[in-house]
Structures are given as structure tokens and as C-alpha cells.
From TrEMBL:
Residue ranges of every copy of the DUF4123 domain listed in the record: 22-135
Protein name: DUF4123 domain-containing protein
Native source organism of the sequence: Pseudomonas hefeiensis
Pfam families linked to this entry: DUF4123 (PF13503)
């Protein structure tokens, strides 16, 4: 049975007296989250985004639940690993809040205003990190987790932390220097761009939302940024704000890239032309 290995892992760590946790991607598992919430006491779960600067995203953020091996909801998750619902962790008894606090400190990556959320709760992100990290980096990545169990594409993997405990966040975390999958990069950009527009251009963003689905518009704009390779902070912010202000959110023909232009030359040409037409001096 495909779920026999994680079940044995759960039983082993239960016998050792550890607390067992499900790290759940509640954005894609809302029904399971509600079921677990209904069957849990207040001290048996925490929202990771709660009590952080992204608390407004709690409903779409990860939750951590303490569970038992025989829980029917846990068995259901183990039966469908391909749905990428999250992963399992074993921590010292009563240390579930420490696990949540560990990830809260690693949640926001980048510098303002170009911050993003690290999707640690995605089993694919965890699996990739553990596949590339040296063992000596496991403690700073896994923190109080004694061991983790996760689906890695075609099979279950279990990884032990050699030195579980509280670790400071490194100045240059190795797990943030791994290559990012295109789908994951786009999801991060979508969240980041949405938060940027809410913070800096709320009125214009709200007006756009009255005319069309802002998520569809945002995805199309980010697709354009990707096509032009305008993914650095300056050109991406420029494209977002100018697209928002353009009549009917349609950019003028001179915005199109020319065959002989590099992305930097393209951006600089359009930026200078826009400043000239808007009556501003070049920066």
C-alpha cells in the first residue's frame, strides 16, 4: 500500500512520545481544514499566517494540526498523496507552537516592497529543499522537527533532523538559493503583485475590479512581464502601475518590444517615452 510507509512513520514517532503534526495547505484543502478544525481543540491547531504581517491571508494560508495515526482524516490524506496537500512532522511533545513559530520567522522573504511568501507548506517545496540542502543545514531549515515525512512525486520520503531545536534564520538561507519551478515562481509573483497594488495603488486597483476580474487581469499582466523578461522589481512595478492607469488597461503600441532590443533596452525606452509624455523628467 502506498501509504504504509508514512503510517509506520506515524506509529514509530507516536511510540517515542513525540507530537505528530499535519502541515496542511489550506488554500487547496479547505474542506479538509474545516473538518480538522471541527474535530480539534483550540490547542491542537494554529494558523501559520496568524500573528504575522500577512494575517489577512490566513484563510488561504497553511495550518498546522496535531493528529493521531488512527485519525480517519489523516488516513484520507495518506491515500491521496498526489493532491500535494502538505506534509507530516514529528516534534517533541507539546512543541507544535514552536514549529509554527519557526516557520513564521522564515515566512517572508526578500526586502520591502519586493517581499514574497515562502511556501514551506508545499510538499514539493520541502522535498526540493531537502534534496539539495547539505545535512548540516537541516537544523536551520527544519527547526524543532525531529523528522518529516512527505510525498516526493512518486514515493514517500522520511527525513530526520540531526539536531532538532530552535535555530536562528541564517543571513543567507541556502533553501532560498535553489532554482524555482516556473509554476511556483508565477504563484509567488501573483501574491506579491496583489499585495503591492493593494498597498500602493488601492483606489485604481479597486476601480479596475469594478470592470473586470482583477486576478485575470493580474495574471495577464504578469504573463506579459514574463514574455518581455521584465521580472526584476523596477520593470515589473512599472508595468503593473502603468497598465493599471492605461485607458481600458490597454498599453499603447510603442510598448511592444522591438526585435533588436534587450529586455533592459526595451524597458528603458518605454520608461523614458512614458516620462516624456507624462511631462516628467527622467529619473
Amino acid at each position: 500500500m502506498t501509504h504504509s510507509r508514512p503510517y509506520q512513520w506515524l506509529l514509530t514517532h507516536q511510540r517515542l512520545g513525540h507530537t505528530l503534526c499535519v502541515v496542511l495547505d489550506s488554500e487547496n484543502e479547505r474542506q479538509m481544514r474545516q473538518t480538522l478544525l471541527k474535530n480539534s481543540r483550540p490547542h491542537q491547531y494554529l494558523s501559520v499566517y496568524g500573528q504575522t504581517m500577512v494575517a489577512d491571508l490566513c484563510d488561504a494560508g497553511p495550518f498546522v494540526f496535531t493528529v493521531n495515526p488512527g485519525d480517519k482524516n489523516v488516513n484520507e490524506l495518506l491515500m491521496r498523496p498526489d493532491s500535494d496537500w502538505g506534509w507530516l512532522a514529528s516534534v517533541p511533545k507539546g512543541h507544535m507552537p514552536m514549529l509554527v513559530e519557526h516557520w513564521r520567522k522564515r515566512l517572508i522573504i526578500g526586502d520591502r516592497p519586493h517581499q514574497a511568501l515562502y511556501r514551506f507548506h508545499d510538499n514539493r517545496v520541502l522535498a526540493k529543499a531537502l534534496r539539495h540542502l547539505p545535512v548540516e543545514s537541516y537544523p536551520s531549515y527544519l527547526g524543532p522537527a525531529i523528522s518529516v515525512c512527505y510525498w516526493r512525486g512518486a514515493c514517500w520520503e522520511c527525513t530526520d533532523n540531526p539536531v532538532p531545536g530552535t535555530c536562528p534564520v541564517p543571513d543567507f538561507p541556502l533553501w532560498l538559493q535553489l532554482p524555482v519551478a516556473p509554476q511556483q515562481a508565477m504563484k509567488t509573483r501573483l501574491i506579491n503583485a496583489h499585495r503591492f497594488l493593494l498597498a500602493e495603488h488601492l483606489q485604481a486597483y479597486a476601480q479596475l475590479a469594478e470592470q473586470q476580474d482583477p486576478q485575470i487581469w493580474l495574471r495577464a499582466t504578469l504573463d506579459q512581464a514574463e514574455a518581455w523578461n521584465w521580472l526584476a522589481p523596477a520593470p515589473l512595478e512599472f508595468l503593473l502601475t502603468q497598465s493599471l492607469q492605461a485607458p481600458a488597461q490597454t498599453l499603447a503600441p510603442h510598448w511592444q518590444a522591438r526585435p533588436d532590443e534587450t529586455p533592459d533596452e526595451h524597458f528603458e525606452r518605454v520608461r523614458l517615452a512614458t516620462q516624456s509624455w507624462q511631462g516628467g523628467a527622467p529619473q
